[in-house]
């Protein structure tokens, strides 16, 4: 089974690794988004601040629990008037 077919645009989200354990299928995903958008003003920013990882649970696949380990980029936007 080609797991890339189940994922969004590979330019934005990449499958880095898969780990199959007796009861769990781990999918390690990494965001490749080149920029983010400020939630307050909607301005784009390509200044990366940091990265963080979240673990998402999905429905079982072939009798195994599915866990998505998603590493995403955090961007910052500097604007006059932001505290």
What's the arrangement of secondary structure elements?
Layout (H helix, E strand, L loop, with lengths): L12 E8 L3 E8 L4 E2 L6 E2 L2 E14 L2 E12 L8
Parallel strand pairs: 2-6
Antiparallel strand pairs: 1-2, 3-4, 5-6
InterPro entries: Transposase_Znf (IPR029261)
Protein name: Transposase
Pfam family, one: Zn_ribbon_ISL3
Plain-language structure description:
The protein is 0% helix and 55% strand. With 83 residues, the protein is mostly beta strands. Strands 1-2-6-5 form a four-stranded mixed β-sheet, with no helix packed on it.
Total number of helical segments? 0
What is the number of strand segments? 6
Rg over CA atoms: 16 Å
Q: List low-pLDDT spans.
A: none
Helix content: under 10%
User: In sequence order, what are the helices and strands, one letter per element?
Assistant: EEEEEE
SS-derived structural category: mainly beta
| β-sheet strand percentage | over 45%
Number of domains: 1
Sketch the major β-sheet: 4 strands, mixed
Sum up the overall morphology in one term.
elongated
Q: How far apart are the first and last residues' alpha carbons, in Å? A: 49 Å
Give the rounded overall mean pLDDT. 82
Spatial strand arrangement across the major sheet? 1-2-6-5
Organism: Deinococcus metallilatus
Pfam families: Zn_ribbon_ISL3
InterPro entries: Transposase_Znf (IPR029261)
Protein name: Transposase
């Amino acid at each position: 089974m080609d797991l890339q077919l189940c994922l969004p645009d590979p330019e934005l989200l990449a499958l880095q690794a898969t780990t199959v354990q007796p009861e769990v299928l781990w999918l390690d995903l990494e965001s490749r988004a080149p920029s983010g958008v400020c939630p307050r003003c909607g301005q784009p920013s390509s200044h990366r601040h940091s990265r963080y990882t979240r673990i998402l649970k999905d429905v079982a696949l072939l009798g195994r629990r599915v866990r998505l380990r998603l590493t995403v980029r955090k961007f910052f936007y500097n604007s006059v008037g932001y505290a």
